[in-house]
């Protein structure tokens, strides 16, 4: 009897050490809106997995197309579950092909591995999902992308890109910086789900 009790106790201790502490996207969204969010969220310190419990990310999954300023955009958004190392997150990852008005491909990230992907989700801010994008980093092309599906038509989405203003520019790596045009538009663009 003592050996069974010992084995059961040992088993429970192992299970409790490996237990996953789940938080939600909503909890982290609320945490980011707190006035003291820079100090962290002590109630979320032990979280090991940030889960999309309400399937809010599903609205973005799929292929979306749009045109802006003579460029054709095809963006594929995929939901990854429990992605990451220390803290796992449910996130959206984006891969895209951008063509100029002649149909020539000027950017293609469809072959990027998940570890090197340059278009990945962060979290919600109200109805808007915030992603981070890195294009030509040598030309300071990185920033946040804001996605929002339309309430009255979930097959339409607006995309807005806010380019980072900080960074060190090396003119040798980006000689055409003065005429450089970012891949994503810095005005709202409408995408349609395919």
TrEMBL record:
Superkingdom of source: Bacteria
Signal peptide limits: 1-19
Chain ranges of the DUF6705 domain: 1-139
Keyword line: Signal
Pfam families assigned: DUF6705
Xref: InterPro entries: DUF6705
Protein name as it appears in the record: DUF6705 domain-containing protein
Organism listed in the record: Chryseobacterium tagetis
Top-level taxonomy: Bacteria, Pseudomonadati, Bacteroidota, Flavobacteriia, Flavobacteriales
């Amino acid at each position: 009897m003592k050996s069974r009790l010992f084995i059961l106790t040992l088993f429970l201790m192992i299970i409790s050490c490996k237990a996953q502490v789940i938080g939600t996207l909503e909890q982290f969204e609320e945490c980011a809106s707190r006035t003291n969010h820079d100090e962290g969220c002590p109630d979320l310190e032990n979280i090991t997995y940030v889960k999309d419990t309400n399937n809010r990310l599903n609205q973005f999954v799929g292929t979306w197309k749009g045109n802006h300023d003579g460029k054709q955009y095809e963006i594929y958004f995929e939901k990854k579950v429990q992605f990451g190392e220390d803290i796992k997150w449910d996130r959206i990852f984006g891969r895209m092909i951008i063509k100029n008005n002649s149909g020539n491909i000027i950017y293609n990230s469809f072959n990027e591995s998940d570890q090197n992907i340059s278009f990945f989700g962060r979290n919600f801010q109200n109805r808007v999902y915030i992603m981070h994008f890195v294009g030509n980093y040598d030309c300071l092309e990185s920033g946040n992308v804001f996605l929002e599906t339309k309430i009255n038509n979930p097959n339409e989405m607006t995309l807005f890109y806010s380019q980072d203003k900080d960074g060190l520019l090396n003119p040798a790596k980006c000689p055409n910086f003065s005429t450089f045009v970012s891949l994503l538009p810095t005005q709202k663009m409408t995408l349609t789900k395919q």
